[in-house]
Amino acid sequence: MRLTTHSDLAFRTLIFLGVAGERGATIPEISSAFGASEHHLRKVAFELVKLELIRATRGRNGGLALNISPAQVTIGELLRKLEPEFAESECLGAGQKGCVIFGACGLQRVFNESLGALFGVLDRYTLADVLDSSQGVAARLGIEPRPPLM
């Protein structure tokens, strides 16, 4: 599986904010931790705010924080929100006009089955499951770990 850089950074931002807990974090902090461009991270943060996954507070004590309970959102749901065109290809029905054998070959069935299996696994795990090892993540990111999840 290959994520876009945008989605990869979005997942890492959600993990960072999950580990940071209520204290949240600033774009420069997250950018520095992951060696990512602040400009790109601002675009990612804007999308995450638009999707209501995080909240942004302006001002001197502002920053970003999770706007969701990590236990209530699955990794599959997050991926669907971040990559709405994840399953778009001619074989999966997105570009039926471009493939002259669409519907006649078995590849469409195979790809649909494998995509179903992928999301079946991703839907079993929540952001909270990913954050379970937050002590190690916090140490690597150089931040104080969050209080235990509710």
Bin the strand percentage. Answer: 5-15%
- Termini Cα gap: 32 Å
What structural category do the secondary elements indicate?
mainly alpha
Radius of gyration: 18 Å
Order of helices and strands: HHHEEHHHH
> Low-confidence parts, pLDDT < 50 over ≥5 residues?
none
Number of strands: 2
Q: Strands across the major sheet, in which order? A: 1-2
How much is the average pLDDT?
86
Tell me about this structure:
- The chain is mostly helical and 150 residues long.
- It has helices at 5-20, 27-34, 38-50, 75-82, 107-122, 127-131, 134-141; strands at residues 54-57, 63-66.
- A two-stranded antiparallel ribbon has the order 1-2.
- α2 (27-34) crosses α3.
- The longest helix has 16 residues, at 5-20.
- The mean pLDDT is 86.
Task: Please describe the structure with a list of short key phrases separated by commas or semicolons.
150 residues; mainly alpha; two-stranded antiparallel sheet; 7 helices; 2 strands
In short:
This protein is mainly α. The protein is 49% helix and 5% strand.
Itemize the secondary structure elements and their pairings.
Blueprint: H1 5-20, H2 27-34, H3 38-50, E1 54-57, E2 63-66, H4 75-82, H5 107-122, H6 127-131, H7 134-141
Antiparallel strand pairs: 1-2
Helix pairs in contact: 1-3, 1-7, 2-3
